[in-house]
Amino acid sequence: MGRSQETSNKKEVKNKKDKKRKDKAKKKLIRKETGKSSFEDMIAYVDEYGKISSTPPDPARKIQVDSTGIELGATKNEPSQKEDFIRKGVVTFFNSSKGFGFIRDMENNQSVFVHANNLSEIIKENNIVTFEIGKGPKGLTALKVKLFKG
């Protein structure tokens, strides 16, 4: 095909590609002349606040970290020290019409879901109760919930 059959759109695309190629070659020549392509000019440092800087950090301000104290991975749930699995807590919320609520464990301040089917006695908010913890479909559930008499 001869150049006479080129459309104006094809000519524009070709001209843009030629211009881009020439600009790239010009920039490369400028970089070569100024000598700014050294590795030291490309290095960036991060200071103690997380900001990127061109100056290296001060070795006098370096902090040594003990790597043996760092745990990798998920934390392991250690079993409780006590043999007794009965816990004590305060009822923070209970809706008797819907039949569920929450108990705040006194030992570790953990919120535990309670359902009306797991109640031995009727409970209200701010009651102190004893209960056992079990696994529910969405997390921890209080089982065998009784009012604390003591």
Account of the protein in words:
The protein has 150 residues and is of the alpha+beta class. The protein folds into two domains: 8-58, no CATH class; 87-147, OB fold (Dihydrolipoamide Acetyltransferase, E2P) (Beta Barrel), CATH 2.40.50. Helix content is 21%, strand content 28%. The protein has two helices and seven strands; from the N terminus they run H-H-E-E-E-E-E-E-E. The protein has helices at 8-34, 39-42, and strands at residues 45-46, 52-53, 87-95, 100-105, 111-115, 128-136, 139-147. It has a five-stranded mixed β-barrel with strand order 3-4-5-7-6. Strand 3 and strand 4 form a beta hairpin. The longest helix has 27 residues, at 8-34. The radius of gyration is 35 Å and the shape is elongated. The relative contact order is 0.10.
The domain tally reads 2
Determine and state the CATH class of the largest domain. Mainly Beta
Q: For the report, how would you describe the main beta sheet?
A: 5 strands, mixed, barrel
Q: Provide the succession of SSEs.
A: HHEEEEEEE
CATH topology of the largest domain: OB fold (Dihydrolipoamide Acetyltransferase, E2P)
Distance between the termini: 101 Å
Query: Number of DSSP strands?
Result: 7
CATH architecture call of the largest domain: Beta Barrel
* Structural classification: alpha+beta
Q: Which strand order spans the largest sheet, edge to edge or round the barrel?
A: 3-4-5-7-6
Return Rg in Å. Answer: 35 Å
| CATH superfamily placement of the largest domain | Nucleic acid-binding proteins
